[in-house]
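Title: Prediction job returns without error message
Component: structure pipeline
Severity: low
Priority: P3
Assignee: unassigned

Description:
Job completed but the reporter wants confirmation the result is attached to the right record. Sequence as submitted:
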Amino acid sequence: MPIFPETQFIDLDVNDGWLTVWFNQPERRNPLTDQVVKELIQVCDALVDSREIRGLTIRGRGGFFCAGGDLKGFQAMAQGESAAAIATSEMIGELLARVNTLPQVTIALLEGAAMAGGLGLACCCDVTIGTADTRFAFTETSIGISPAQIARFVLQKCGYATGRRLMLTAARFKGEEAKAQGLLDQVVANSADLEAAERGIRRDVLACAPGAVAATKALVTQLASIPDDQKVAFAADNFTQCLRSDEGKEGVASFLEKRKPLWYKEI
């Protein structure tokens, strides 16, 4: 089991091989402050080599996902040296890249509101589930800034044309429209249904081999950057390493023997 950092601004809950990260500043609508970003990066560092933790869920305390960046911090940076603003932006970009490529299945549970950088963080997750009344917006242009670091992950999640329109116009919308635009994979009625939907995803993931999940994450996140003439060899190597691993051998054997594989967990 990985050793997780001591955290002050996020809560960590490990249960049956699954980590839930809670934004825990509900009185401020759970902003992505520098301290929160640093703690999330430390959590990603602890997860990257782990196969004991099978999945990660990100959600917010107080019935609110995340309000996005810390505007008071932005105000201070606007009046300071450019180097500080660049460093903060790069740190957020590092967090997003790490969440995007984690070897675990990642879920964002969205309620209340998911705005700006908070919604961008959700776009880095494999599965997004939100309530019908959750409010969404990429608000950056409406307050005079750009959605810099989240932009590529927004385009990855909902496509070029939709992502471009949503980020340029700072449009506001709720759950059903978010699903229609590709930002949500599932819309539910309320918090109880949110947790039931998450349990269904967990159940599916815990039937999958953790090493194969990690290999598949590497496959799908790296394929776009592999030259076309190298894609076949890259995919073949990815497949062969899985097949010849202990997991691959166990998985084939368990199927042929009509039994559950050793990694299978029932919840």
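Comment from assignee: result matches the submitted record. The mean pLDDT is 96.
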